[in-house]
Specification:
The protein has 374 residues and is of the alpha/beta class. It folds into two domains: 80 residues, Roll (Urease, subunit C, domain 1), CATH 2.30.40; 290 residues, TIM Barrel, CATH 3.20.20. It contains nine helices and 23 strands. It is globular. The strands form five sheets. Strands 6, 9, 10, 11, 12, 13, 14, 15 and 16 form a nine-stranded parallel beta sheet that branches. Helix 4 packs across helix 5. Helix content is 23%, strand content 28%. The model has no long low-confidence stretch (mean pLDDT 95). The relative contact order is 0.17. Bound molecules: zinc ion. Zinc ion (ZN) binds next to loops.
């Protein structure tokens, strides 16, 4: 059933709102369809996460076939669409991920819609590889990215533009409509500018795995904050960036719609707090973080709704402003006019939250896929 009338709630600005969805699309009104009583809830456009490494115990690079389980798990956290991220890996992991996406969901599945893959690597800087496996790093080449396009299932590619051959690859990907993101990089300011001229539009997890901004060498961070071209993916989980850094990013980027909230979340999202085994590591999951036994931050276990709360607390943004970074900004970046808004003509993707911004229900394409009140 993909028709639903959501009534009794308020919108992000506090005004009463009714959302009518017929056959998966929002309409001005709908009669004779099931109703969802949203009294006491705030009705938001469906949240969209452009950087998801895994969820509910599954890592998308280790187990690309878990895509649809991850997608179902994300919906329980208020996400209605997302970009599954495959980090630097063997070519077979990327192929398996593309196959899982192209194969479509299993019978009876309901969850967040994968919008295409993000290949984060393997064309990244060895010196800024973070947790990526060094043996699979590779220099950019047109052969490697042959066939990477939105039609084939690739919508975002992270690359280090200082690598030999990178600019040619950026130009080719951008011409195909792939969102090229600069990240895991030691690029100079001039190399960042060259990447932007070649078509790069995004920064992968601003401030992490890149040089800091310096007085006369602003680099990638300075280009994003001080320039006008780059949208920046910001891990707004409350742990990956100091609140002052997060606030600086907010003030620089949000007014021009370039602040993209991402979780960079991992298999630990949706797992209970406590000791866990993730990949090859013994970790401790607590309050949206994943740490090694010695306390080192080993990834995020944050939901996008947690980021929404952090953004509001740290920046003082209005709910409508904060929500736009978790819905409208990612939709516009991908050129997806059917998502990211509560408006007739858009898909029926809705996230319902309580006064503390905890997710209560998730509607994807007019289907109630999660209802915490039941
Ligand atoms: Zn990364």
């Amino acid at each position: 059933m993909s028709s639903l009338r959501i009534r009794g709630g308020i919108d992000a600005a506090g005004a009463p709102i009714e959302v009518a969805i017929v056959d998966g699309l929002q309409l001005a009104e709908a009669d004779g369809v099931p109703e969802y009583d949203a009294a006491g809830l705030t009705v938001l456009p469906g949240l969209i996460d452009l950087q998801v490494n895994g969820a509910v115990g599954h890592d998308l690079t280790d187990e690309p076939e878990s895509l649809w389980e991850v997608a179902a798990g994300l919906a329980r956290h208020g996400v209605t669409a997302f970009v599954p991220t495959v980090i630097t890996s063997s070519p077979s992991a990327r192929e398996r991920a593309l196959e899982a996406l192209a194969g479509g969901p299993p019978e009876g599945w309901a969850g967040a819609v994968p919008l295409g893959l993000h290949f984060e690597g393997p064309m990244i800087a060895r010196s800024r590889k973070g947790a990526h496996p060094v043996q699979w790093l590779i220099e950019p080449s047109l052969d490697l990215v042959d066939g990477w396009s939105p039609d084939a299932g690739v919508v975002v590619v992270t690359i280090a533009p200082e690598l030999p051959g990178a600019l040619e690859v950026i130009e080719a990907l951008a011409a195909r409509g792939v969102v090229v993101s600069v990240g895991h990089t030691d690029a100079t300011t001039a190399q960042v500018a060259a990447a932007v001229a070649a078509g790069a539009r995004l920064v992968t997890h601003l401030g992490n795995t890149m040089p800091p901004m310096l007085a006369r060498e602003p680099g990638l961070v300075g280009h994003a904050l001080g320039g006008t071209s780059l949208t920046a993916g910001v891990i707004a989980d409350g742990f990956h960036l100091d609140p002052l850094t997060l606030n600086t990013a907010w003030r620089s980027l949000a007014p021009s719609g370039r602040f993209l909230a991402v979780t960079d979340t991992t298999a630990a999202l949706g797992m209970p707090d406590g000791p866990a085994r993730l990949g090859d590591h013994d970790v401790v999951v607590a309050d949206g973080t994943v740490r090694l036994a010695d306390g080192t931050l080993a990834g995020s276990a944050a939901s996008l709704s947690q980021c929404l709360r952090v953004i509001r607390e740290v920046t003082g943004a209005s709910l409508a402003e904060a929500v736009d970074c978790c819905s409208g900004v990612p939709a516009r970046l991908l050129g997806d006019a059917a998502r990211g808004a509560l408006a007739p003509g858009c898909r029926g993707d809705v996230t319902l939250v309580d006064d503390d911004l905890h997710v209560v229900a998730t509607v994807v394409g007019g289907v109630l896929v999660h209802d915490g009140r039941r």
